[in-house]
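Deliverable D5.2: sample structural annotation.
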Amino acid sequence: MTSEARRYLKAGAISALLLGIVLWVADLPAIDLSALRPAYLIPTLLAYGAVLVLRGAALRAMAPAPAHDLPLGRWITLAARHQLVFILAPSGSGDLAFPLLAGRMTGLTTSAATRLIAEARVRDMLVVLGLGAAGLVGAGLAPPFVLLGTALAAAALYRADLSVTLIAALLRKLRRAPPPPPATGPAIRTRVLPVLLPILLWLFASGGIMAGFRAAGHPLSLSEAWVMLAGLNIAGALALSVAGLGVAEAGAAGVLTLLGLPLAEATGIALIARPILLLSNAAASALIEGIARIGDLSADA
């Protein structure tokens, strides 16, 4: 059995175990399907579509020359394909496929693509933690000084590339590899866009969470959506699973419990809302892939 097969089996076992626990805890007979609002599936899909567009734009803004001069459509298609892999693969391994996808579609070397996705994830983490801290304060779950966490995350976000550069320099020194060419281009592309685009990306993701939970019959405020955003991402980062199954539902139930719902009710809502978010995300990726094939957005990819 290959290591990849063992990874899938382990991830599948963890997903099955956690999902079974969630189903056992949930008060399934009490789930009110009449509270569902299918009309909100449309804004959920649109929000995740916007996330992928912004993800492609952010990757392009952070990419080294000459890849950042490629058409935006190719970067958006790369973001959509990477997201599909991320959804289908065991937690964490989706990013391992990014250098291969990026190399085929943009011509980036493995080291440049690895650095790109590493910087993107560092920026993601900072934005999510900053929004999570603001959400806790806004939802009345933390004292105002916790907003300091948001301010620190914003400051770190501006120089997120520095930490990635230092790590990359250390690895190059260990391998005795030559340094990469310095970043070139207008300051708005090299400094401002890599900060603004991830913020916009995760704000749209928050909108997708709000619409998805409203579709599930449980509206969230903006502050609560930010807490949910942080909770789902932290849960997904801490555990190995397939498509986040079991882990994300448990994380969503935990956040809803933190927001004041009884555990049984929270798990029931999570069992409805989480598939809506997952399928909307996958549908947005598939939609962009279809548009790319019809409109030739990723020509020569």
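Annotation notes: Residues 44-294 form one domain. The CA atoms of residues 167 and 242 lie 29 Å apart.
The annotation will be released with the project's public dataset once the embargo ends.
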